[in-house]
Amino acid sequence: MAEFEERADQLSLNLIDTTLADGEIFKNARRKLLSTGAKLLVGPRGTGKTHVMRYTYLHAMQTDSAPLVLYANFSRYLNLEPLLKKAPDALKRFHSWVVAKLLLSCFDFLSDKKEASLFLTGKNPLFDEIKLRELVSLLERGSGTEQYETYGQNLTVDHVLDAVDLLRKKFSRKRVVLLLDDAALSLADQYLIAFFEIYRLLKTEFVAPKASVYPGSTQYGPTFHASHESEEVPLWLSVEDAEYSQIMGDIATRRLTSTELAGINSDTFESFKFAAFGIPRAYLRLLREYLDVQAGTSQQKINKIIERQTELIGAEYDSLGIKLKQFSSLVATGRKFFERAVASVAAAKGLEPSARNIIFALKQDSDRNPLAERMLRFLIEVGMLYPLQAVSHGVNRKYDRFIPHLAFLHAQGVFREGRGSSSKDVPQYMQRPLAKQPIRRTLSTVLDPDELASLKLDLPPCQACNTARINESQRFCHNCGTELVGSSLFEECMKLPLEEVPGISDTLIARIHQSTKLRTVGHVYAAQNASADLQQASYVGPVRAGEIIGKVTLTVNEFLS
Q1: Taking the model in full, what pTM does it have?
Q2: Which InterPro entries does its entry note (predicted)?
Q3: What is the mean pLDDT of residues 276-304?
Q4: Which residue from 177, 347, 385, 532 has the least number of CB within 10 angstroms?
Q5: Closest Cα to residue 83, out of 139, 41, 123?
Q6: Least reliable range by pLDDT among 93-97, 159-163, 360-364, 517-521
Q7: Interatomic CA distance for residues 437 and 220, integer angstroms
């Protein structure tokens, strides 16, 4: 190739076949995508979710013994976000948009197979490719009311199931896999909940939906019980993986030309592998910048590029507080937590001089409430903290372990030996044996009392039109004029103990207290998967968990109305 493309969704199908690295983590993801049952492919941006899905789609299409695999991408969902403010039936239009995208995946499959679509269009007048594409295009432009009312609102999940079954029989496949890419609709919670309602309905005896999501901001809603209804498949290559260097090297070999490969020495490749922290897209961006920058020595270029990497990641993380207004305080406090975790690792550099000491352990204690857990998950979502398996250091001394992003450790001089830096520093350091003990902290030793108190949900948008507030003192919505819920009122609502939620028995409250860290209405609201958290309590299954969440929601609505 004359130049390489970082994003897999921009690669043509004929290039997808030759550009996916062959490591075990990607092989396992492909096996899971082709297997029976619903799956959630989980990883930060750039870890290869789209690449694995499109690769799986292509190879299944070419393999008669594989299930029928269809691919749909939902990355343009934010184009429909304005409808939430101006259309009372926005959720119904979103439903039609999702169904239309799924039906179009059937036509895309036939096109990629170079098969005529007449057999499909003849089965149902709603299976009309031209109308489907027009409906999707118009809805994404915030219009299409007439097309929706005359055509789109008639589309249902059953039509999708009928269409995919027709394809399954035509091509003599035993099962169907639906690959739903970019399904982490994290910037429009109402759409996200509606999406997973559809996802749940797609799961049948012959159909297995697989969705790609983020580890931090994906909220599944009260009726989708992720732990029971689907299996999580992590897709983020760990720097501790024995195949790490080989897999990252394979990515570069497959995506760069021989001339580009020759322009980078082996030590520089190794430095950037670790600075990318297991994110293929970041690795390719680092290499591209190195090839593009002309001025300076090789080491100066490396240092500058890695420093720029930390700025980009930090900016992406900070943007979560802007995009997810209700979590802005959690995001801001999370940044302080991360900076101190990095500083703790850097300060411990000399404790075991010949060891690799990059693991930060955080004790599981009473300070780790659902708000704190959500804070940590946002750091994981952006790729700033890599979660490792928890370990126990004795009775009541269980620790979650994380690796802070190596680019930030690099900026703190963790890998540097002596006064100057070298491209050999990082790869040589990562070859050392792992330190016997990680750096261990509690949340209260990382954050001071005021910062712990700042772990709270922030004011919601206007309850009438969902417009974000300009400031905390605002009394009326600047868009529709509705009187806004006051700061103290909202905070008091979030502080309500679960004991004060009508309809939850004392016995059930006792079980929740014994087995979970959910104590208040705000804890339930902050939980990424409140249903799964509630089901940790005895005799609480998916149905009862949904009832509890419904009662909490009703209490909030009545409190703030």
Answers
A1: 0.80
A2: P-loop_NTPase (IPR027417)
A3: 90
A4: 347
A5: 139
A6: 517-521
A7: 36
- DSSP letter string over 53-119? HHHHHHHHHT-TTSPEEEEEE-GGGGGGTTHHHH-TTHHHHHHHHHHHHHHHHHHHHHHHTT--SHH
Question: 3-class SS at 478?
Answer: coil
Tokens of 135: 């409906």
Strands 176-181 and 360-363: unpaired
Distance, in Å, from the CA atom of 204 to the CA atom of 494, rounded to the nearest integer, reads: 38
Placement of tokens 């096109």 in the chain: 111
- Amino acid letter at 370? P
Tokens representing residue 119 in the block = 């057999």
Supply 124's token pair.
């149902």
What letters, b where the CB count within 10 A reaches 16 and e where it falls short, cover 232-253?
ebbbbbbbebebbbebbbbbbe
Q: What is the mean pLDDT of residues 124-135?
A: 96
Sort 462 into a burial class: Cβ within 10 Å, 0-12 / 13-18 / 19+: buried
The CA distance from 483 to 473, in Å, is 12
**pLDDT recorded at residue 360:** 96
* Predicted pLDDT at 280: 92
- Order across the sheet with 207-213: list the strands: 68-73, 176-181, 207-213, 39-42, 231-234
CA atoms of 508 and 537, how far apart (whole Å) = 8
One-character DSSP codes across 481-546? -PBPPPHHHHHHHHH-BGGGSTT--HHHHHHHHHH----BHHHHHH-TTHHHHHTTSTT--HHHHH
Q: Which residue has the higher pLDDT, 103 or 481?
A: 103
Give the chain's end-to-end CA distance (angstroms, integer): 60
Residue 52 parent element (H or E):
helix 49-61
Least confident stretch, 78-82, 146-150, 366-370: 78-82
Distance CA 181, CA 49 (A): 8
Cα distances from 468 to residues 84, 93, 252, 324, 351, in angstroms, run: 12, 22, 43, 10, 48
Crossing angle (nearest 10°) for helices 90-112 and 157-170? 10
Are 260 and 4 spatial neighbours (Cβ–Cβ below 8 Å)? yes
Helix (H) or strand (E) holding 189: helix 189-202
Q: Please, are residues 208 and 175 in contact by the beta-carbon 8 Å criterion? A: yes
* Tokens coding 318: 């900070």
User: Tokens 């089965």 belong to which residue?
Assistant: 123
Q: How far, in Å, CA of 118 to CA of 377, rounded?
A: 47
